[in-house]
C-alpha cells in the first residue's frame, strides 16, 4: 500500500505544498498572543505536544487501541456496512482514531487533517509506518479545504470541544460528505463529567505533589522544572478547551447544522472516576517509578469499570453524568 503526502487532485482548494511548518518551540511573544487567540493557542500547544503526544496519552497502533477506537465507533455506528471507501479525520492529532479505525477495516483510504502542522506530520509518519493509504493536510475544521461531496465518512476524536463554532464545523462536515455519508465524533467531554474530572485531577495533583515533598519520598518527586512546565501546559489547556457538552444540546447542534438521524451516546462514569486520578498521578511522578504492574492495574481497572458502566450503570445513571459523549448522523440524501 502507498502513503500519499500530496494533496488529493480532485480538491481545487487544497494545496499541501503551502501548508505551514510545525512550530514546536514558540517564542514568549507568541505564547502571550495565544492567550487571547484560541486558534494560535491550538497550534502552539499541539505543535509543542506533537512529538511526545502518543507517549503522554499511551496511544498505540496495536490491538489495544484498535479495539478502543473500534469500540467507540461501533457504539454509535456499528450497524453500518464496511468499509467506507474514503474517510476524513478532523483534529487528527497523531492519527489515533482514523488510523486505528482503518486498521480495523472501517475505511479503505483516509485523509488526516489538523490545525497543528506538527500533528499532521506525526499522523502521516504513523500512517506510513503502518503502511496505510493516507494523505494529510493542515486544516481548520471550520473551513475544511476539500470539495463538496468528497467523503463517505468523517470522524473525529476529542476535537469538537476545541472548535469555537461547532455548528459551523458540522455544516462543513455535511458539505464535504457525500449524500448519505456519515459522521462519527467521539471522546468529547460532557459538562457534568468535565466538572468531576477536573476536580479529581486537581485534587490528585495537589495531593501527589505535596506528599512527594516528604524527604523519604524524594525519589517519587519529578524535578521542579518539569512540574512547573506541566502547570504551564495546564494553564494553556484552559485556552484550548472551549466547550463541554450536554448530550441533548450536542444533538440539537448537529440537527441545526442539517444532519439526519442524529444520535448522541455517552460512556465512562465509574471508569472516568478511576481514570482521571490515575492519569494525573502518572503525570505527577517520574515515569520510571510506574512499571508494568501499575500499567496492568490501570488498564484492567479501567476495563472492569467500563464493563460495570455499560452493563449496569447505564441503566440507572442519567446519560449526562457519564464523562464521554459521542455523536453520529448522516448527510441528507439529495432530493430532486
Ligand atoms: C485533544 S487533541 C485530539 C487529537 C486526536 N484526535 C486524539 O484523539 O488523539 C485535539 C486536536 O484537535 C486539533 N484542533 C484544535 N482546533 C482545531 C480546529 N479548529 N480545526 C482542526 N483541528 C483542531 C488540535 O490541534 C489537536 O491536535
Automatic annotation (TrEMBL):
Question: Low complexity bias: where?
Answer: 9-20
One Pfam family this chain carries? Methyltransf_11
> Which SUPFAM superfamilies does the record cross-reference, listed alphabetically?
S-adenosyl-L-methionine-dependent methyltransferases
The record's region (Disordered) falls at: 1-27
Methyltransferase type domain location: 88-185
Q: What would you give as a GO molecular function for this chain, any one?
A: methyltransferase activity
Keywords annotated in UniProt: Methyltransferase, Transferase
The record, for InterPro entries, names:
Methyltransf_11, SAM-dependent_MTases_sf
GO BP terms: namely: methylation
Q: What is this protein called?
A: Class I SAM-dependent methyltransferase
What broad taxonomic lineage does this protein's source fall under? Bacteria, Bacillati, Actinomycetota, Actinomycetes, Mycobacteriales
Amino acid at each position: 500500500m502507498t502513503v500519499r503526502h500530496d494533496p488529493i487532485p480532485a480538491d481545487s482548494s487544497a494545496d499541501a505544498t503551502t501548508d505551514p511548518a510545525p512550530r514546536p518551540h514558540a517564542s514568549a511573544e507568541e505564547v502571550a498572543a495565544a492567550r487571547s487567540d484560541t486558534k494560535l493557542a491550538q497550534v502552539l500547544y499541539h505543535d509543542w505536544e506533537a512529538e511526545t503526544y502518543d507517549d503522554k496519552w499511551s496511544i498505540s497502533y496495536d490491538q489495544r487501541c484498535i479495539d478502543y477506537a473500534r469500540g467507540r465507533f461501533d457504539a454509535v455506528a456499528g450497524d453500518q456496512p464496511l468499509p467506507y471507501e474514503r474517510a476524513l479525520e478532523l483534529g487528527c492529532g497523531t492519527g489515533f482514531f482514523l488510523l486505528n479505525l482503518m486498521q480495523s477495516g472501517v475505511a479503505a483510504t483516509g485523509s488526516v487533517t489538523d490545525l497543528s502542522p506538527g500533528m499532521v506530520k506525526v499522523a502521516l509518519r504513523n500512517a506510513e509506518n503502518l503502511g496505510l493509504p493516507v494523505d494529510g493536510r493542515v486544516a481548520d475544521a471550520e473551513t475544511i479545504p476539500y470539495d463538496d461531496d468528497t467523503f463517505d465518512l468523517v470522524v473525529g476524536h476529542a476535537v469538537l470541544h476545541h472548535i469555537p463554532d461547532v455548528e459551523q464545523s458540522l455544516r462543513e462536515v455535511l458539505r464535504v460528505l457525500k449524500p448519505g455519508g456519515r459522521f462519527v465524533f467521539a471522546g468529547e467531554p460532557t459538562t457534568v463529567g468535565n466538572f468531576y474530572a477536573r476536580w479529581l485531577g486537581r485534587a490528585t495533583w495537589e495531593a501527589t505533589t505535596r506528599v512527594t515533598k516528604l524527604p523519604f519520598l524524594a525519589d517519587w518527586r519529578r524535578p521542579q522544572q518539569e512540574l512547573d512546565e506541566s502547570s504551564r501546559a495546564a494553564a494553556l489547556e484552559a485556552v484550548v478547551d472551549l466547550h463541554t457538552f450536554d448530550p441533548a444540546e450536542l444533538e440539537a447542534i448537529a440537527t441545526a447544522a442539517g444532519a439526519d438521524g442524529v444520535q448522541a451516546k455517552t460512556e465512562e462514569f465509574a471508569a472516568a472516576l478511576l481514570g482521571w486520578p490515575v492519569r494525573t498521578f502518572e503525570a505527577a511522578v517520574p515515569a520510571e517509578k510506574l512499571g508494568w504492574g501499575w500499567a496492568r492495574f490501570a488498564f484492567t481497572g479501567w476495563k472492569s469499570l467500563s464493563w460495570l458502566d455499560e452493563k449496569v450503570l447505564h441503566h440507572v445513571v442519567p446519560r449526562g453524568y457519564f464523562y464521554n459523549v459521542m455523536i453520529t448522523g448522516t448527510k441528507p440524501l439529495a432530493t430532486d
